[in-house]
Amino acid sequence: MSSLPGDDIFGLQSALFQAGVHTVLGGLWTLETQAACEVTSEFHRNYAKGDAAEIALQKALLRWLGEHGGAGTILWAPFFLSSLGTASVPQAVH
């Protein structure tokens, strides 16, 4: 990817960007299964409703933290968004 010098640091993200993906939701370390399931499901619900990816993730994490009494950082902190360019927000499916 000539548009991203040093793209080797992107790993899987680079391949996804080359395939046309604009935003990747990932984890910085191995995620606890239940937390990952709850946060990513809520993220996708929010995103499908029309929230921008960063807002969808913020809402998902805040809801998860509210439901789990601010559980340990290791469970919620690894989530990140990586974006390339500007992505359009999907329309809500009815």
Structure in words:
- The chain is built from four helices and two strands.
- It has a domain of 56 residues.
- By secondary structure, the protein is mainly α.
- Helix 2 crosses helix 3.
- Strands 1-2 form a two-stranded antiparallel sheet.
- The protein starts with 11 loop residues before the first helix and ends in an 11-residue tail after the last strand.
- It is globular, with a radius of gyration of 15 Å.
- Helix content is 45%, strand content 11%.
Estimate what percentage of residues fall within beta strands. 5-15%
- The strand count comes to 2
- Individual helix count: 4
- Give the structural class: mainly alpha
Main sheet? 2 strands, antiparallel
Morphology: globular
Mean pLDDT: 80
- SSE string: HEHHHE
Rg from C-alpha positions?
15 Å
How many angstroms does the end-to-end distance come to?
Answer: 37 Å
Uncertain spans, ≥5 residues at pLDDT below 50? Answer: none
The proportion of residues forming helix, as a percent range, comes to 40-55%
Order of the strands making up the biggest sheet: 1-2
Q: How are the elements arranged and paired?
A:
Elements: H1 12-18, E1 23-27, H2 33-48, H3 53-67, H4 73-76, E2 79-83
Antiparallel strand pairs: 1-2
Key terms:
single chain; 94 residues; mainly alpha; two-stranded antiparallel ribbon; 2 strands; 45% helix; globular
Short description:
This protein is 45% helix and 11% strand. The protein is mainly alpha-helical.
